[in-house]
Amino acid sequence: MIPVNKPYLPAFSKYTQYLERVYAKAWLTNNGPMVQELKLRLEEYLGVKNLLPVANGTLAMQLAYKVFDLQGEAVTTPFTFIASSSSLAWEGITPRFADVDTQSYNLCPLATARAISDRTSAIVPVHVYGNPCDVHAFAELGQQHKLKVIYDAAHAFGIKVGGQSVLNFGDAATLSFHATKVFHSVEGGAVIFNSSDDYERAVLMTNFGIDTKTGQITDSGINTKLSEVHAAMGLAVLDNIDAIMQHRVALFEQYCHQLKDVVVQPAWHQQATTNGAYMPVTFDDATQSSIVLDGLARQGIIARRYFSPSLNQLPQYTQRFTDPCPVSESLASRTLCLPLYYDLSATDVTTITDAVKQALYGSAN
């Protein structure tokens, strides 16, 4: 069987080298040396400042919302993983969905502008599949309406736009270090703040609001700390991140070549790099995508409807005000993600693309 995803595992000996350092200090959590080293190495690798490691990507988003004291509504995309909107709802912020762009599949700036109301406190776009949003348009919208812009960049590890990290755009950007991501620490995540003041408040909040210098509780807080054991895995993976990304990008490019004129793909940001995070393919209609999904499954190949359903159609959100999202709803019904991970081979990709063509045309030719 070929799964849709498979976590990258560094050599066990490499991981245990980091774990031996954890054991030697008997320091398992509370911003230990592994977390501190991971933070510094990630800031250097990604070209960012004010990076705060946390326990997972969902907490990263929730922490950002708390730092900015968001209330009311946030305009966001319905074409994404559920955590993008549930993290808002969990903090008492109503997700107000705006439709996505037909080409990039990302939150549409024009639709976002129409969705902004007097209750809007933020815009929360997602770099879907690692494909950067129109960051300049959202910066302009944020300035015009005095709104915070917080990017869910869970898919965008290592991506650059115009030569700089996509994580440097917005008031904050969040990452997920879940096991299925390009870079992972089994579970984990990070928030990157534009402002050092916001970063310092987040550091305080992530330790229950306790000022470690004085021992006084000076702010509302929660526990979002990343453990030393998770950070050790992150460091072991980071040691090989260039090879991981190069291989994934090579597979992505092979897919694109072999499926040219067979499927539709999101139009990638013209000034952006790629990281091989996902291999999305879109078909003419829902029926065609189901035929391919079933045809792959019969050959032991697992694809996934990523993302389905369009979040504005979920029962918990349908009673809340949202603009129509026909583009997102259409894409959700006919877009699949094909297998893409480090252990996948070029031969595997050929097997998968042949299976796609066979499902569509009755043969691989």
TrEMBL record:
Keywords: Aminotransferase, Pyridoxal phosphate, Transferase. The lineage of its organism: Bacteria, Pseudomonadati, Pseudomonadota, Gammaproteobacteria, Chromatiales. PANTHER family: PROTEIN RV3402C, TRANSAMINASE. This is DegT/DnrJ/EryC1/StrS family aminotransferase. It comes from the Bacteria. Belongs to the DegT/DnrJ/EryC1 family. GO terms for molecular function: transaminase activity. InterPro entries: DegT/StrS_aminotransferase (IPR000653), PyrdxlP-dep_Trfase (IPR015424), PyrdxlP-dep_Trfase_major (IPR015421).
